Amino acid sequence: MSVLRLTLSVATPKLVRPFVIATGARTHQPYLSVRLTSGPHSGRGAATGIAYLGASPERLRDEIEAVRTQIESGIDRQALLQLLPAGGARAALDGALWELEAAQSGSTVAARLGLDPVPIASAYTIVLDTPEAMAAQARLDGWRPLLKVKLGGSPDEEETRLRAVALSAPKARKVIDANAAWTAEQLARLAPVAAACGYELLEQPLPAGSESRAEMRQSLVDASHHIPLCADESLQTLADLDSLLGLYQAVNIKLDKCGGLTSALSIRDEAREKGLSIFVGCMLAPALAIAPAHLLAQGADYADLDGPFWFDGEPVRLTQDGLFAPINPAVWGAGETRAND
């Protein structure tokens, strides 16, 4: 392993409009950028971190600074798995190492994975709001191939919200993300309604960790008879997978949770072997952070990678059919090679 030079920076861009979910609203989204340089070659990565776990880009930066010496002494992706725990810090570094390897080999990350990327149907988020406002959002974005409807607001309006969106975007495929905010009673009442309204998937209806209680496990099993369930907050790393079997029919893999593309590939492969559907998700993050997830989402059952579209000027585009086009490897995937002086 060659000596590396590490560069870190935090940016805080404004979102194109407020992003509202059950845990709060935000108008800006900071993220951490990482660059690793070895000789003429550089690799880049980025991450925002998982807010509900107390992570922030500044905290990610501090985690990396604490092991700067070990990193700059030379490290590869397998050694990184032992150096840092799962999370955004490792995800950003992992992305930079993947790209550095690509630059050094004169290739791309996609090619090294044996992929020829194609456009994917990435969900577009209908943010949590009043039923009327969510219906208006759905009418505006109902042309998109897949909508992800954020719920978890005032309990007395949840059914009205999900019905309003379904009626306002009848042609789009739709999934629900309850952001771990429902009770077992809500789940029992709303799961059949969601199914009747044509929603395909219900993501994380109950709080993470509630699966350890027998009555909550039973509520998940009962709800899954109406609509497939997807684990998000309950699936952080590969170690969580077995405990979720029989309760969920899909898993949401996010690089910021599991610690990067290297770990995510392992989760995807084992989840598939166990018969689970694959949902590739993301945090609000720029294309630099989302590009590895776009590769992971090739062939996935569902994807929610709209993060870059919440920022102005990101180098991402939709096809005429509303699919998320492959991200140019110059943005992330090919690395950078400095010309000889």
Description:
This is Dipeptide epimerase. Its cofactor is Mg(2+). This protein is an alpha/beta fold and 341 residues long. It has two domains: 110 residues, 2-Layer Sandwich (Enolase-like, domain 1), CATH 3.30.390.10; 187 residues, TIM Barrel (Alpha-Beta Barrel). The chain is 35% helix and 19% strand. The protein contains 13 helices and 14 strands. The strands form three sheets. The protein has an eight-stranded parallel sheet with strand order 6-7-8-9-10-11-12-13. A four-stranded antiparallel sheet has the order 1-4-5-14. Helix 9 links the parallel strand 9 and strand 10. The longest helix has 18 residues. It is globular. The model has no long low-confidence stretch (mean pLDDT 95).
Number of separate domains: 2
Give the averaged pLDDT, no decimals.
95
- Pairing-aware structural class of the strands and helices? alpha/beta
Shape: globular
- Please state how the strands of the largest beta sheet are arranged side by side: 6-7-8-9-10-11-12-13
Question: What is the CATH topology classification name of the largest domain?
Answer: TIM Barrel
Distance between the termini: 24 Å
Poorly predicted parts:
none
**Element-level helix/strand string:** EEEEEHHHHHEHEHEHEHEHEHHEHEE
Cofactor: Mg(2+)
Keywords: Isomerase, Magnesium, Metal-binding
Pfam family, one: MR_MLE_C
Family: Belongs to the mandelate racemase/muconate lactonizing enzyme family.
